[in-house]
Amino acid sequence: MIITDTGVPEEYIDIDEWGGEVMLRLDDGWCAAVDRDTLLCTIYENRPWICREFEMGSYECSIERATMPPRAPQQD
Fold this sequence. Notes:
alpha+beta; cilium; cell projection; 8% strand; two-stranded antiparallel ribbon; methyltransferase activity
């Protein structure tokens, strides 16, 4: 499934090294659609299929979270 077919806003889509559409990740490695204060998806209603299928708390979720870089402290 192509991400643009799911309603994801184009500013959150990137192209990987094979030419496929992927969710944009920022320099810190986090998805660009995640609100850094709440850790909630800002495009939840239009999130791609893979995000809908990725069960929170699952083994796969735990592995992904373990490989993510730590969040930088928020500046006030």
